[in-house]
Specification:
By secondary structure, the protein is mostly helical. The chain has five helices and two strands, in the order H-E-H-H-H-E-H. The chain has one domain. It is globular, with a radius of gyration of 14 Å.
């Protein structure tokens, strides 16, 4: 049940970023099924691909004092945009900002789900 709630929090974060910014950071066609599928694919990419990329990019992340992790998060959003139809990124800096907002919202939402 917690997994489903976390996916819905991530979907709400993705859709919220797209809707509240008017599509200037991300573009999502609709909440169901596009944002939910994007959240599911993002969760899978973060669980499988992101740790491998973090290990390979550790020297760059170390040299930039951790700021390269934002670029890795944006890369995960680019990967989701390539896989999910109806989910599009706008530009590099906009995607980095969207990834930061989504990470903060899903982190806070995930902690709220775990408290139950």
């Amino acid at each position: 049940m917690k997994f489903i709630l976390r996916i819905l929090v991530a979907a709400a974060a993705i859709f919220g970023v797209a809707y509240l910014t008017g599509g200037s950071l991300l573009s999502v066609d609709e909440f169901w099924p596009t944002a939910v599928i994007a959240a599911l694919v993002l969760g899978i990419a973060n669980a499988v691909i992101k740790p491998i990329v973090h290990v390979l990019a550790f020297p760059i992340t170390f040299l930039t004092l951790g700021l390269f992790a934002l670029v890795i998060n944006a890369g995960m959003l680019y990967l989701v945009a390539a896989i999910v139809p109806g989910f599009e990124t706008v530009g590099f800096f906009q995607t980095v900002l969207a990834a930061l907002i989504i990470a903060i919202v899903t982190g806070v939402g995930g902690k709220m789900v775990e408290k139950d």
